Amino acid sequence: MTTANRIQPSTEDTHTHRALALLAQHRLLTTTQIHQMLTPRSPSRKIHRVLVPLREQGLITHTTLGSSSRLQAHFLTPEGFSTVADWPELRGRTATPIGSAAAASLRAAHTLTGVRAHLAFLTDARARGDEYEPLDWMPEVTHRLPDTGGEDRLIADAVFHYTATSPRRLQYRAFVEIDRTTMSSERLARKLISYARFHDYTPQTVGRWRTVADQGSLLAWQRLYPRFPRILFILTGASRTTLTARIQDLRNMTADHELVTRLAAHVPLGAAVLEDIEEHGPQANVWTPLAGDAAPRSWTQL
């Protein structure tokens, strides 16, 4: 028998494998969200055939959200976390286990809001034939900042990687900030300063802190990204008037703060309302640029 005629193992992951990987990376997902990521073309009831055995094996558990016991959010148990810890697709991506249903409930609102945004991009990419998969959205990505007396870390709510295939092949990366209107507008806008500091940060070498002027050194972000990711703010949780005002506050910070103005000269910055993204798609003209002309546009045209 020739090599070509031998039976070869499948290169495709099982639904069970993919479900565990999704829960490891996103940490918390509802049944519907897992179905939308994993088997969107199959009846939703079929996802239970994947989840029930994982629960029986002690690899996943769930918390109940709201007053209805039908809305469940699933997460890995410590045993499930140990199972996926060394999987190649998750290296450097898995966070610590949630630990308990109570802890899952406390983080559910923010985590699941981020997943809603991710699913809007995923649904749109599938319709367009673009390359964007469920694991291309990485939550809670941390980067060091220079020690200047302020925050020493930048924690992006997510970083995603997206490849458009038409009319020509283009690769995009974006930092994402999810705003549920739970912090002051000023504090939200200050995140732009943190991104500007990271944009200019060259790690200390040979006992001294080197600046952006040291052309011989790599900036911190250049060790991780071929191009500095665009920055997208996604807002929800308040009236249209309030969300519009918060977007204007982001524009004011961009215009008034020297570091952020310099950042905007090199990096696309934009903001949109989550419900607009979900209704019209992220490629629609629902994004307000944070610098220059405020006319709405697509996230790829910022």
TrEMBL record:
InterPro entries: Replic_Relax. It holds the Pfam family Replic_Relax. This is Replication-relaxation. It comes from Streptomyces lavendulae subsp. lavendulae.
